Amino acid sequence: MPTDRIHVEGLNETLRAFRQYGPEAANELRTEAKNIAATVAAKQQAAGRSSSRQSAMAAPTVRARRDRVPVIVAGGRSKAGMVFFGAEFGGQRRPTTRQFRPYKGHTGYWFYPTLRASMPAILDAYSRALDRAARRWGAGG
Known about the structure:
By secondary structure, this protein is mainly α. The protein has one domain (21-130). The protein contains five helices and two strands. Strands 1-2 form a two-stranded antiparallel sheet. A hairpin with a 5-residue loop joins strand 1 and strand 2. The longest helix has 28 residues, at 111-138. The chain is elongated, with a radius of gyration of 18 Å.
């Protein structure tokens, strides 16, 4: 599975501070974060379905994961998951990857371009979710 992490200044400290609000607040934050990620994952699936035959096969492996921050995972051990990397990044450099489009490096064809385009909305929505949770749980719940 591809792993790309975005560094947000002060996020670790904020999440650490949220621990004082208890498990109910953490559960609420996890739900908000998954909803944000699910919105983007749906866009990525749509982009994959319209990109190429291999991308359409890999698109269903894109899903949101429940965590304190928005997390989107893709790939996996299924045949579709194994196709994910070739469908996203291309191939043709080896005999075993000739069926994919030309190699694009880290640019990607559909998963990462959609993620990059969605990043401002993700950061904005997550920031608002943190603010709401802090107002609700910081004032005594």
